[in-house]
Design a protein that fits this description.
Blueprint (H helix, E strand, L loop, with lengths): L2 E5 L2 E4 L4 E8 L7 E7 L6 E7 L5 E3 L7 E6 L4 E6 L8 E8 L11 E2 L3 E6 L1
Parallel strand pairs: 2-11
Antiparallel strand pairs: 1-3, 3-8, 4-5, 4-9, 5-6, 7-8, 9-10, 9-11
Length: 122
């Protein structure tokens, strides 16, 4: 059974940084993609970034380009999201999820973690 566990959230001030981790077990990373999503109060869950394990491609939405970086450690079955220059609008619950085909669409993902809270103060 596939298991996805996020960690690394917390409270930071504007301009601060956090590194989120996503540990995935139960499948071969070569056959799946991993994405990071977030959901702020009153808003839809949105895709932020994903990494394809078939070709190593990464994808980002415009609002996080240059600030967030997705990476992976194959030996640890872990995907990271390094978040820099955080803004109050980044405040949300952040989720990691797995998919067969890389995308930034919620509907494309099969297994989800429980989420980790990121709060950015003004």
């Amino acid at each position: 059974e596939v298991q996805v566990v996020e960690s690394g959230g917390g409270l930071v001030q504007t301009g601060g940084s956090l590194r989120l981790s996503c540990v995935v077990s139960g499948f071969d990373f070569d056959d799946y993609s991993v994405g990071w999503f977030r959901q702020a109060p009153g808003k839809r869950r949105e895709g932020l970034s994903c990494i394809s394990f078939n070709d190593g491609s990464t994808y980002y939405i415009d609002s996080v380009k240059g600030r967030f970086t997705i990476s992976r450690d194959n030996a640890k079955n872990t995907v990271y999201l390094q978040m820099n220059s955080l803004k109050p609008e980044d405040t949300a619950v952040y989720y990691c999820a797995t998919a067969i085909i890389p995308s930034l669409l919620v509907s494309g993902y099969d297994y989800w973690g429980q989420g980790t809270q990121v709060t950015v103060s003004s």
